[in-house]
Amino acid sequence: MVIFNTVTKKYKENIIALEDVTFRIDEGEFCYVVGPSGAGKSTIMRLLIREELPTSGSIYFNEIEVPKLNRRLLPAYRQKLGVVFQDIKLLSTKTLEENIEFALEILDKSKKEIKDSTDYLLDLVGLRERKNLFPQELSGGEQQRGAIARALANKPDLFIADEPTGNLDSDNAKQILEILKTINKNGTTVMVISHDLNLINGTKNRIINIKDGRLNSDTQPKDIDLKNLVNKKVEVKEEKKEEESKKEIVKEEKKV
């Protein structure tokens, strides 16, 4: 699905955004790309959508070598991706429903397909009753959910959410995450980019950690499960030791 192979990205004045980063994301995965602001997380997204080119290394998406992709093929390539940014980019002159319809019209869908898909996407994000409102009439959480619906219009193979909960309170952030998990369960690969470690607290999903432009760690779900399993075994052993100690104390008391 996605392969970054020893990718480095340098800007002018020798500013290094990414250095020798390697990872692979398989089809159907749900993963977080985390790290502090300025770590290089969003650079990964910009390289993947071919907004920028790497200084060195290779990037593949579904066997397409992204940096070498002909510019004429970029629109078709980007239709395979669904992207939501922190600065929500809904069209202010169109209602929520019209924003989604517009994305489908660009794909040259029939009127029936546009109607059916728009209704489905509005239901998916829980905004059918708000469909006739303009973006400025929606709350921040509703705008983000609307942006997610629009980004799903092209049925992307990969959905990228760049700081999707950055400006939201905890309740709205949870709603967004639940929607992203539903998208993943429906078969779409999901990559969530975030600096908010509270977002991944308790997760069993894969976590790719970027620090100072380098891959700091890559925690697989099996690693997390293994840690939980080890902790449980330790707890059980400790409980058994406590029970045995109590029994010994009772025996000693009876002797006395």
UniProtKB/TrEMBL annotation:
Residue ranges occupied by any ABC transporter domain in the UniProt entry: 2-237
Keyword entries, A-Z: ATP-binding, Nucleotide-binding
Region (Disordered) location: 237-256
Entry-linked Pfam families: ABC_tran (PF00005)
ATP-binding is among the record's keywords: yes
InterPro entries, alphabetized: AAA+_ATPase, ABC_transporter-like_ATP-bd, ABC_transpr_LolD-like, P-loop_NTPase
GO CC terms: plasma membrane
GO molecular function, one term: ATP binding
Protein family membership: Belongs to the ABC transporter superfamily.
Protein name as it appears in the record: ABC transporter domain-containing protein
Source taxonomy: Bacteria, Candidatus Dojkabacteria
